[in-house]
Specification:
heterodimer; A: alpha/beta; Alkaline Phosphatase, subunit A; two-stranded antiparallel ribbon; B: mainly alpha
Chain lengths: 443, 619
């Protein structure tokens, strides 16, 4: 048995169990490290106001309008797109929010399911793997966490609050509580190496027996039950595979792996703390990449159809989803909506600041990261999926050149997802539903 | 999945099936659409929590475009018929018990199981990712998955539990490792603890695999026996055999289970062990206790009488009360009020402690209805009384209630009637700074009537005019009626919700808003037997109490909760049968629960289609 010293005092006084994996703080980088590529997906819901969002000017010499103005300092690191349509989101059951959520990162048609929704049919979960998980199959194999899903008040346990999927009908829920994220990622930095070595031995032995249980059960079960257990089996195998990574690999890519402060306990559903939680989650995301704990992260701000008011900005009357519906002649309400949208841009800029602050070789973490900023709608008061507000940022390890505003002619968004996979070094010629994927998006 | 036995055909599939695309009209706002109500974990909300079916019997919803013309008069919207009795149930033939799905323990079941397994109430799930919801319930097979992060959380918890067991080793290990021999004693421990953890005896192969951890323990910290015990506990608790309720079933001897012999290619009976778990997880939300496991070991959970006797015993136990309340908590959503936040600028005297008081009121009300003298569940919707203590009475402005103990208090029948007008329901269906007639109306449709709403308009621009900010809530929402794109659907929700406008977003009585007198006149339309115009919500609630449609909805909701899935076409006769017993028994809910444990769907499962050995390994 592992000695009880290994237990950490956790939330609510309950002792929490031993850390999952070891972090080696401050391990010096190799002589000529090869910095890996990383991916971040940044999501906020309910569409935007494209007329106050789209840059004016030429491809390389453009002016940022109101909503994107906070990106001014990162103008050379972003690629702003117009003219990409989410055609696949026009298919399948459910309302436009749910259809958009389901196909946003998967490029697949939403499945039928149990969730009552807009068109009288029942919306379900997404119909395929999402681009973050897909890319993580390649990038994530060498880190202690394949991916991280971080939420900022993405609290509903329904499709409208899910963007990441391991496969059809397999949503990956985000962790909305910064204290829990910290406990998982950074608490282990305290642990004794000898204890951790034994922990690996222990876990390997236990998981070996558990793996046998699946094989024994498989002989007895009906096919649909086998499928359900198959997901559990994959999760256990994933844990098992990562145990071997505890003793080596990862840790302080650029020598700037610092443990963030332990976040205070906060209510993840709080409107008042929305901004504080957003900052904490982004800080930990940046450090998780800097420490090479993972290479793929999604940051989900709230959820489609949210009832989130920006009380921390004094906006108490209307919630974001309501404001997204404001009619085009309701100038005052649309101004409020634009204030919220601009706030999201400020957060996006803050994330880029963080990535840029981590040196890696001659450049920074930002140069080695690809960031996708996305939304499940282009516009709230029409629920449209055409001319989506997609933005790419970062250098993607040299695969992406920033400082551009690109306009396409009704390009299906699967093409963007495909281009992302290729930029990240995944060899594939299609992504998502093949009917909606015609070529890698030229960038 | 194979088809249900074709001996009966529901005469009115659209009618009898309550499973429905209840929807939503949810994606319209401020004008047409409403965002989700403010609560920590919004449950069934704008888009969620709708009734539906699962599995092969999925009931196709009607074609949106064919059914709905946004410009048409709202009154002409064709609704699928509301739930009614199934027909042509051929009760003489072998019937189909419906789909049987393996279910992961949900967080509450997991916590309770750990508590009863080791005798410590650690509630480890408080740190877990929340359970996904489905049909408004958190115990549905289809939504309970295990993601990599879940698996990690289960692993770390198993390590914690293992440590606790090792510390209190003598309570769990019945042999003396020195006298009996350590390896032998370990096998004894595996046999005994394993039976409780997996809720069935371990097979020889399973026992051997766990016993092999003895060797692994040698590489870790001494003493080896304790370490091995810890590893065994971890392996047991991380196993799908612990985390899931796996039901394989078995071919059965008809005489033994008290059935008439008959040709029966469709069904398997659940084993006695599986029945024990079905009983304990339904009635206690936890693992079987020792008498239940002993009954299973003796093969005494085979007949209806045997199952019923155990169900009766479990329901008489204190542990059944929180378990039954869990159903009501989720079905009627009042428990969400424990987590709401209200904007202090609008409700300055609403304090955090009021949330728990409101939920306590509703829970006491229901508990007394379930276990008291007067058990007719119609009172759920029309009771002219509630339960208050001094603090809550003061909050409501009700005079003459002293002391911290809750007691029964008569209500003004012109103001309140039953659960729908209680503060916790009114608060759970409101927003942080205002009421929501849409949500309250949707709540009644979806939770109480089990009726579908018609499809909303196709995906066209919805640009409603901005309401006058100084108008009343009702006036703002009446914009819906003037906008033909909204009216068809909202006509079924808003006029119901208006009935509750006398209750503000924290559940208190009010007679005016922004200087406007409250108009709480309301209307129920397109129901089977509850249509009418009412002066306010209390009068409407009394009508709902008398409705057969509402009482059938009670049964349907409980069916979903009990079986962990939506109803399918195969279940129509079972629902009918449940309703008839419920009605005949004077709508005694606890009696309904007990009866359900004796039914076909509880004691049997479908025979899986791919039983032939050659078909194994298909995905």
């Amino acid at each position: 048995m592992i000695s009880r010293r290994g237990f950490l005092r956790g939330l609510g006084g309950l002792t929490v169990a031993l850390p999952l994996l070891q972090v080696v703080p401050g391990r010096s980088a190799k002589a000529t490290p090869v910095y890996p590529k990383r991916l971040i997906v940044f999501f906020n819901p309910n569409g935007t106001l494209k007329e106050r969002w789209s840059p004016t000017g030429t491809e390389t010499d453009f002016t940022l309008p109101e909503i994107l103005l906070p990106l001014q300092r990162h103008k050379q690191s972003v690629v702003i797109t117009d003219g990409i349509d989410m055609l696949v989101s026009e298919e399948g059951p459910g309302g436009p929010h749910n259809r958009g959520m389901a196909s946003l990162l998967t490029g697949e048609i939403i499945l039928e399911g149990p969730f009552a929704d807009g068109d009288g049919r029942l919306a379900g979960w997404a119909g395929g793997i999402s681009i973050d998980q897909y890319i993580a199959r390649e990038l994530g194999a060498q880190t202690r966490f394949t991916t991280l899903e971080l939420g900022v008040r993405a609290i509903e346990n329904e499709p409208r609050a899910r963007i990441s999927y391991l496969g059809p009908d397999q949503p990956v829920p985000p962790e909305n509580n910064p204290a829990s994220v910290w406990q998982r990622l950074f608490a282990p930095m305290d642990a004794d190496p000898e204890m951790l070595r034994k922990l690996v031995v222990q876990r390997r032995s236990v998981l070996d027996v558990v793996r046998g249980d699946f094989a024994r059960l498989d002989r007895k079960l009906a096919p649909e039950d086998r499928h359900k257990l198959g997901q559990h089996f994959e999760a256990v195998r994933d844990l098992e595979r990562r145990l071997g990574l505890a003793a080596g690999g990862g840790g302080a890519m650029g020598g700037v792996c610092n443990r963030p402060e332990q976040p205070p306990l906060m209510d993840p559903a709080s409107e008042d703390d929305f901004e504080r939680i957003a900052r904490l989650q982004m800080d930990m995301a940046v450090m998780a990449l800097a420490c090479d704990l993972t290479r793929v992260i999604s940051l989900e701000f709230s959820s489609a159809l949210n009832a989130l008011r920006f009380t921390f900005m004094g906006m108490r009357e209307q919630d974001g989803h309501s404001l997204s519906h404001a009619g085009d002649f309701s100038a005052e309400l649309q101004d409020q909506w634009a204030r919220m949208l601009t706030w999201y841009t400020e957060q996006f800029a803050y994330l880029l600041d963080g990535l840029k602050s981590v040196p890696e070789g001659e450049g920074t973490l930002l140069d080695n990261t690809l960031i996708l900023w996305c939304n499940e709608l282009s516009r709230g008061n029409t629920h449209a999926h055409d001319n989506m507000p997609f933005i790419l940022a970062g250098g993607a390890g040299g695969a992406l050149r920033g400082g551009r505003h690109l306009t396409y002619d009704h390009e299906p968004h699967n093409n963007l997802l495909l281009a992302m996979a290729q930029m990240m070094g995944v060899e594939t010629n299609t992504f998502g539903h093949p009917d909606f994927c015609t070529r890698p998006l030229p960038l | 999945m194979h088809s249900p036995k074709p001996t009966r055909s529901p005469a009115r599939p659209g009618a009898a099936v309550t499973a429905t695309a209840l929807l939503a009209c949810g994606w319209f706002t401020l004008g047409c659409e409403e965002a989700a109500p403010e609560s920590a974990t919004p449950g069934p909300s704008a888009t969620g929590g709708a009734p539906a079916t699962g599995g092969s019997g999925f009931v196709p919803a009607k074609d949106a475009e064919a059914e709905f013309d946004p410009a048409a008069d709202a009154g002409s919207v064709e609704l699928p018929p509301p739930p009614g009795p199934a027909q042509d149930c051929n009760l003489l033939g072998a019937s189909d018990p419906g789909p049987a799905l393996i279910r992961r323990l949900n967080h509450r079941e997991y916590d309770n199981t750990i508590r009863d397994l080791i005798g410590e109430d650690l509630r480890p799930s408080e740190g877990f990712l929340p359970d996904e919801e489905f049909l408004g319930f958190d115990n549905q097979a289809a939504s309970l998955q295990i993601s990599p992060l879940h698996a990690e959380q289960y692993m770390m918890t198993a390590e914690l539990i293992a440590d606790r067991v090792v510390q209190r080793r003598d309570e769990f290990v019945s042999c003396d490792p020195v006298a009996a021999g350590e390896a032998t004693c370990l096998r004894t421990f595996i046999t005994e603890f394993g039976l409780r953890a997996w809720r069935r005896p371990l097979e020889a192969e399973e026992l051997d695999a766990l016993a092999a951890l003895w060797t692994a323990a040698a590489e870790l910290d001494p003493p080896q026996f304790d370490t091995a015990v810890g590893l065994v506990v971890q392996a047991l608790l991380e196993s799908p055999n612990f985390l899931f309720r796996i039901e394989v079933g078995e071919p059965f001897d008809a005489i033994r289970v008290g059935e008439l012999p008959r040709e029966d290619p469709w069904r398997l009976r659940l084993t006695d062990w599986e029945i024990a778990s079905r009983l304990s997880y339904l009635l206690w939300k936890s693992m079987p206790d020792a008498p239940l496991l002993e009954a299973a070991a003796r093969g005494e959970l085979a007949t209806v009488a045997q199952v019923r006797a155990q169900a009766h015993r479990l329901l008489a136990d204190e542990r059944a009360r929180p378990a039954m309340l869990d159903f009501f908590d989720q079905w009627l959503r009042y428990a969400e009020t424990a987590r709401i936040s209200r904007d202090p600028n609008y409700y300055p005297d609403f304090a955090p402690e009021h949330r728990d008081l409101l939920v306590t009121e509703s829970r006491l009300f229901i508990t007394n209805l379930l276990w008291g003298q007067e058990r007719d569940l119609r009172a759920l919707f029309d009771a002219p009384y509630t339960y208050l203590n001094d603090a809550l009475a003061q909050f409501y402005g009700v005079p003459g209630v002293d002391g911290p103990n809750f007691r029964k208090v008569a209500l003004d029948p012109n103001q309140r009637a039953g659960i729908l007008t209680q503060g916790a329901v009114m608060a759970a269906t409101a927003k942080a700074n205002m009421t929501s007639p849409v949500f309250r109306g949707q709540y009644v449709r979806e939770r109480v009537l089990c009726t579908p709403l018609p499809p909303p308009p196709p995906n066209i621009p919805v640009v409603p005019p901005s309401p006058d900010p100084n108008s009343s809530t009702r006036e703002k929402f009446e914009e819906h009626d003037r906008n033909p794109a909204c009216a068809g659907c909202h006509k079924l929700m808003d006029p119901v919700g208006y009935g509750f406008e006398n209750f503000d977003a924290v559940g208190r009585w009010r007679t005016e808003e922004n200087g406007h007198p409250i108009d709480a006149s309301c209307e129920l339309a397109s129901t089977r037997d509850a249509d009418g115009l009412f002066p306010n919500g209390a009068a409407m609630a009394r009508q709902l109490a008398q409705s057969e449609q509402v009482q059938r909805c009670v049964v349907t909701q409980f069916f979903r909760y009990a079986h962990g899935r939506g109803e399918t076409l195969a279940d129509l006769c079972a629902l009918d049968d449940l309703y008839e017993h419920y009605e005949a028994g004077g709508r005694d809910f606890v009696a309904l629960v007990e009866y359900l444990t004796t039914t076909e769907g509880f004691r049997f499962r479908r025979r899986p289609p791919a039983e032939a050995p050659g078909q194994e390994g298909s995905p």
